[in-house]
Structure formats: C-alpha cells, structure tokens
Specification:
The protein is an alpha+beta fold and 102 residues long. It has one domain: Translation Initiation Factor IF3, CATH 3.30.110. It is built from three helices and four strands; from the N terminus they run αβαβαββ. It has a four-stranded mixed β-sheet, sandwiched between helices. β3 and β4 form a beta hairpin. The longest helix has 11 residues. The mean pLDDT is 93.
Length: 102
C-alpha cells in the first residue's frame, strides 16, 4: 500500500508520460490486461486512459486493471490513471520512506 507521499512522488514522475494503455467500449478485456503486462516488462510506472464510451466508472475500471496486472493504482484523474508495479529485481524507481508515526 502506497502512502500519500509516495503517491504524490509517483504522480510527479508520471507527468511527462503519454498513455500507453486505453480502455474502450469493451471495458477491461484480457487483451487490455495483456497489453498492460507487456508494458510493465519495460517500465515500472504506466499511464493509461479510459475512453468516454467505456462502460462504468473510471476508478472502478482502473482498479480492475490494477488487480488483473498485480499492480497498484496510484491515482485516477478524470479519465486518466496511473499504475505502479516495481521490478522484482533492481527497481529503478526509489520511493520516499513512508511516514512513521509514534
């Protein structure tokens, strides 16, 4: 689970990214999940978009895709979403420490 500080950091990193995954009229299909999995082979942070004709709430669709790809939903802004899944070996993105409360 990501802290708000980590979410803000990842959101900042994603500002320059272009969406590489699109969810359309069919919703979150196996093909969309496979496309997302392939994108995660080369990157840890992924931006996607949800078309206006997509069925359902953008947050629910993005969360479903995150569950199917074993990634974490960072943020949904309008019809854009950000997913994060660190590499198992040698992660490139170093997240800030979580806040420790006494």
């Amino acid at each position: 689970m990501l802290s708000s500080k980590q979410r803000a950091y990842l959101t900042g990193l994603s500002n320059d990214l272009e969406p590489v995954v699109n969810i359309g009229l069919a919703g979150v299909t196996p093909e969309v999940a496979i496309s997302c999995e392939e994108a995660f082979n080369t990157r840890e942070l992924l931006k996607g978009s949800i078309m206006k004709m997509a069925p359902g709430d953008p947050r629910d669709l993005a969360q479903t895709l995150a569950e199917r790809t074993r990634s974490q939903l960072v943020r949904v802004i309008g019809r854009k979403f950000i997913l994060y899944r660190p590499f198992k070996e040698n992660p490139r993105i170093v997240l800030p420490e979580k806040n420790k409360r006494s």
